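In full, the data:

***
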Amino acid sequence: MAYFERPVGKQLSSLRAAREQFLTSGRLTADVRSPIRDSWSRSAHLGINPVDLGAVPSYEEPKESEILRGITTVLQHSADILADEPISIIFAAASGEIMHRYCFDTQLRNSLESVFLAPGFGYGESDVGTNGIGTTLEGSKPTLVIGGEHFNEKLSVFACAGAPVHHPVSGALLGVVDLTCSASIANPLLLATAKSVAAQIQDALTEHIGARELALLRDYLAACRRSTGPVLALNGEVVMMNRHAQALLAPDDRAALLAHTADAVNELSSRTVVADLPSGTTARMHYRPTMYGDRIVGGVFRVQVGMDEREAARPAQPRLAAGKLPGLVGTSSDWLRACAQVQEDRAHGRSVIVEGEHGVGKLALLKAAHYANSNAGHLRVIDCGAAHDQDTWLDEIRDELKEASGTLVLQHLEQLPNAAAGALSELLVGHTGESQVDGVRWLVATRTTPAEPSDVEAMIVPCFDSTVRIPPLRHRSQDIGPLATALLHRSAHSEDISFTPAALRQLARLPWDLNLAQLQSVVNKIVRTKRTGLVDVGDLPPQCQSTVRRSLTHLESLERDAIVEALRTHRENKSAAAEHLGMSRATIYRKIREYGIAVAPMANTASQL
């Protein structure tokens, strides 16, 4: 159990001072725990307001499913046990949206309502900054956030303990159990209780749905053995797709297939579904239901792909361009060069480290290179940050290296404890001594570019044949437009929305210090208020109206956002905006230049003076 000693007296004062220093200067001190420091940095880069707290309710209707019913049962039981305590039990989905809340204490319930900690509102880090729900989702591990450790000061009166809940079959993150109470009564048992409730939920889900989904898995594996083409299996919670489907079908075609299969998956009898795919290909999907007792628990589809008459009359399409990998977005020369290097290393069986900042696409690139190979085999990702139980962790790697094929990814190499570096080095040296030909385990790793030399640098890096560096998003402006568009379509669940050229040019000017995480946060804010049509510069969040390349302090970010909102309110009239903000006209002109705020031209230029 992760032990956390509640700050009291002098510690609370030190924490308040550390937070104030961070908000004004951006500097972090050792008085703040490492997970909280990391979360504050993420929240700062995402432009979260540390003072005011606003919330936008979800536009989506809550989904009812066996999964949520199983979760609700455990939550209600736990809430009954804690009914006499001033504690709330909350469950939030993987998106950060609060799904359920149980709180029998009137005073606490009113306090939670005042900060929108209620069903239908988002509490991810991109919504409110550091908190028990969002920070647990970000790290996918139990997290306690107490008092002034919250990024927003309105949350500093609470203590929040979050524990992740994973699907018992697929392992997918389902959401977070969060226990919230007053910071004045918090203690380490809060986190222990949250972890206990999360474990009870996973046990209940295993009991209720494990057998049904194992039945679906059984039918899926049987179909894979009989078929040489794409196979899909799905129910309301799980989607399985074999490597043939991933290698042979473009992402748009796979999405179209899933849309067609969803309509047929509850049929009692076998049937064949014919679908025209976006690429011009026709797919024949042979459906067979999976039964558990007398209930349908999903279905398996064997897919035959063939061209229609129009497509057959066309000349053959060229093969995938060098450096391009299916499922990845990006056309910049730096990105394509990195993709091509990894593909070449894969083809020759060379072990490789993919290096770059957080969120540049390291793991996505390795997965794409793995699945692009027709004999991909098994993919396993092992987190080097979980090497605290060294013997168990090394045994996992040793067992994976014995596999005859597939890919082993050692993720977050920079988080490897120095004490484990020597033993891991011996393992890797023994592995690299084997023949690196096709059919032998492909060894790869990811790491964030280190700030200074370490034992990992000295002992582990030489065990790999090559290093491929992926530049940050701010150095790949050509990729920002395609990535932003892809994220927009995915987040809006529609292609009936797109950026204008001017909006894409504005996005390409921004620094994107947190790479894809920051871009996704911006897209999330857009789709909260706009689901169709064109997204223009004026529809972008205030943080996107500034093109300054240096990192702003939070006070500067708040000032920048206030100026942007004032300019919008007064239709870009700088004099009216300055008067609204209580500053001189000269000051607002200087601030607009200093922050690189984009001001749309107006027909009557004199009205801006």
